[in-house]
Amino acid sequence: MKALRLNRIFFIIVILALFTHVFSMNTLKVTANTENHSNGYYSEKYRPQFHFSPEKNWMNDPNGLVFYKGKYHMFYQYNPYGNKWGNMSWGHAVSEDLVHWTHLPVALRPDKLGMIFSGSAVVDKDNTSGLFKEKPGGLVAIYTSAGETQQQSIAYSTDEGVTWIKYEGNPVIPNPGIEDFRDPKVIWYEKEKKWVMLLAAGNHIRLYSSKNLIEWKYMSKFGENEGAHGGVWECPELFELPVNGDPNNTKWVLQVDINPGAVAGGSGGQYFVGEFDGETFINDNPPDEIRWIDYGKDFYATQTWFNTNGRKIWIGWMNNWEYAELIPTHPWRGAMSLPRELTLKTIPGEGIKLIQTPVSELQAIRQSPYEWKNQRITPGQNILSDITSNTIEIRAEFELGSATEFGFKVRKGENEETIVGYDTERNQLFVDRTNSGVGQFHEQFPGKHTALLHPVDNRIELHIFVDHSSVEVFGNAGERTITDRIFPDPSSKGSELYAKNGDVQLISLTVNELDSIWHK
Ligand code: FRU
């Protein structure tokens, strides 16, 4: 009897245990599903949906941008161990279309010469370096070793940038006694079949040349008395472009970042247009003329892709050293801008200017458009009240009327909005993020950023990209750009087209919601 009862108790315990097990498995599954739904991959608060950001941890400058064997490589300043600056290494991602990215393992890590600071990468297709066994060579990265001093080092890869071998004779350019001595950008100068390196050296740029990427000869310097000097110069660039699309008339652009002292405060970029003869860069314009690249606060350390066949494309880090470590994102911190295609154009009254437009590949993520044509916009009306989304692209053309200001309010919530507008009295394009959401983490974050922009035939064109935590504005087909991070509540999805103190004529307007590049 006793044995039978014990048996029964044992049986009940087994059934109960089984039941609890199955039940707990189910709950586990349910939690996993909910996680996927509301908290899944790249779904964290403020996570950019069509901009590049690392899965986790800190990111700053784009590095080593190179197109190779059908892939755009993007390396970037990365801290593998936390989401503040430190342990600087090169993170790595690749893309076939500049829109969708695949993460790859960390490519370069600190060594006895120091951390791996910013730099570039080239395709050494003729094996000029002799680092490869034979043609067709491979990739060479040129970067700053930042230890006790800053020096330039190289590394090479025979497996399309996945793993790297550091050159045993590093550094290839030892420090000559200059404290800030970094960010090598190497280009191929076809006319003399040589490599040219630009280096940021405190308040100027130094140019070097080499036949083999290993032995470098100092050639010239540029900039001590040119352009803006409110801070240290960093991350130089040099490239040649046709003017107004004419291949027989080209100019060279030398771009350099400055921190602090940029147009909107903190860090930003400036550029010079001129001549480069393989040895010296000569600015075509007066030395005190400053040409800003972007008029927002969050477009820094731009670099162009090497080897893109006539197309010049660059990308920037969407942040500002003023508050870079304070922006409220977790577990990652740092995002890139959209890749932008560069051209040179003569603007009446301004000379030859750098024009930036978002790469056309981005059209692939447009969802079906909402369209309007020829409509008079008056104060108080909002034709966009049906659009609720936090990832949109807006393309609009206006003919100026009596309104003193018009534009778009985006990421609108009950108590917040970001204004992208045009002030017709001051001829100013602007982004006002004063009341855009969370911004109290730094006193210089809230504010309005403006750029002079003249109407063409009394018309203004706006091209705007709005993501979960950024706005990028291209005015008059890329003549002026404003790039700003914003941190609105995810529920702030409203948009408005507004006119102030009068009317404006809307010639055309297209709004597309944009797909996420991180969810298939
Ligand atoms: C620019 C910069 C570079 C340097 C890197 C370090 O943002 O300061 O000059 O190489 O960041 O992470």
Please explain how this structure is put together.
- The chain is about 5% helix and about 45% strand.
- By secondary structure, it is mostly beta strands.
- The chain has 2 domains: about 300 residues, Glycosyl hydrolase domain, family 43 (Tachylectin-2, Chain A); about 150 residues, Jelly Rolls, CATH 2.60.120.
- The protein has a 6-stranded antiparallel sheet with strand order 22-32-23-28-29-30, with no helix packed on it. Strands 4-3-2-1-19 form a 5-stranded mixed sheet, with no helix packed on it. It has a 5-stranded antiparallel sheet with strand order 27-26-25-24-31, with no helix packed on it.
- A hairpin with a 3-residue loop joins strand 6 and strand 7.
- The radius of gyration is 26 Å and the shape is globular.
- About 5% of the residues have low confidence.
- The site of beta-D-fructofuranose has 12 residues, from strand 1, strand 5, strand 9 and strand 13.
